[in-house]
Amino acid sequence: MTDPTSADAPSILIVGASRGLGAAMAAEFAGRGWRVTGTVRGDGAAPGRTALHALAEQRPDQVAIETLDITRPEQIAALAGRLAGARFDMLFVNAGVANGDRAETFADISTDDFTRMMQTNVLGVMRTVEGLQDLVRADGLIGVMSSGQGSVANNTTGGGEIYRATKAALNQSLRSYAARHARDPHAGGRRALVLMAPGWIRTDMGGPDAPFGMEEAIPKVVDVLVARQGQPGLAYLDRFGATVPW
Question: Of 17, 74, 160, 238, which is the most exposed, with the fewest CB atoms less than 10 Å away?
Fold first, then answer.
């Protein structure tokens, strides 16, 4: 394993690393010798203590913390400016929200709640990718946390309509991004792009009934991302590395 304090150690920027899957990913990458920069939400005041803060205290030479609210474009630009001298091997955007009632339909959800979900899960994620892409090495990897529920082909049972719609829109958006950049190998066409569908995992969002814990799932997610390095183009993958139908 590479010395994580070495300039040669691989590095990752994880957006949305304060808790849940993002914090678990930060801990897993750090445990494998990566240098990790993770973001927590900030509104100008000092952010509350998070799992990422605890990890940074344990590994102060390896883990750094930045603040970012992906729904605020000025914060994305400010983070890009603060990190302008850095070049990461990976950027992974984990941010996202769900509606409180998964049984809610389009007839039920308020316009404000629908807009909030689309703004965070699609617009905010894609603005973050666009705004921070230049921090990633030309042959690096950009990944976002999608979901198997974003698969149109696999949607045979319905349910979770609003969340499914946001993830399907995210998948389409990153596919458009990939197609645009594939035309120019000097503008991101050499990068690997990953839509990650981690499965139903026990988190605040996934709930206590999910069949898998983070300790089981996250090492596999990281395995897939590490293995995908050096393979240009977009892949929609589950935590086992299998392709998810669009």
Answer: 74
Backbone phi, psi, residue 207, to 5°: 85, 165
pTM equals: 0.92
> Are residues 145 and 167 in contact, defined by beta-carbon separation less than 8 angstroms?
no
> What is the separation, in whole angstroms, between the first and last Cα of the chain?
36
Q: Give alpha helix (H) positions in the chain.
A: 20-31, 51-58, 73-82, 111-118, 125-132, 161-182, 214-228
Q: How many CB atoms lie under 10 A from the CB of residue 126?
A: 19
Interval 110-130: pLDDT, tens: 999 999 999 999 999 999 999
Interatomic CA distance for residues 12 and 29, integer angstroms = 8
b/e burial code for range 99-120 (CB count within 10 A of at least 16 → b): beeeebeeeebeeebbeebbbb
> Residue 44: what pLDDT?
46
